[in-house]
Design a protein that fits this description.
F1FO ATP Synthase, 84% helix, mainly alpha, flat, 0% strand, 2 domains, 143 residues
Amino acid sequence: MSILVALMGLCVAGLIAMGVYLELSRRAPPAWLKGGVLANLTVFALALAGLLFLGVEEVMAEEVAAPAREISLGYGLALLGVGLPTGLAAIAAGIALGPVGSAALAVIAEKPEMFGRTLVYLGLAEGVAIYGLVMSILMLGKL
């Protein structure tokens, strides 16, 4: 288990180091980089899958001081499923806020009186994350 965590940490550190290298070098990335990044992401995905599938039983086997409820594998996976809407909605909101925010800044630069309207559009894009949080809270109430 600790080997998988170390492997994932090295993958993340490698991706960060490559990003810093590319940002500081300011030239076209070398041809070998695409394969290296793809291999790094593949190893990271495999380590994450291994950690999830192999680590679930180890985590579930830990004894808790005063368990309020028996935690089974199904309950643990249900808790992971409850967290998914919040995480995926936050990612979707981040993806949506990029183009909306840049367009809003461009509009404000040309017409400052459009500031209020652009805030509405940014709020709509951010609302996706709030909907995901609400769904997670509703699902958590059903467990």
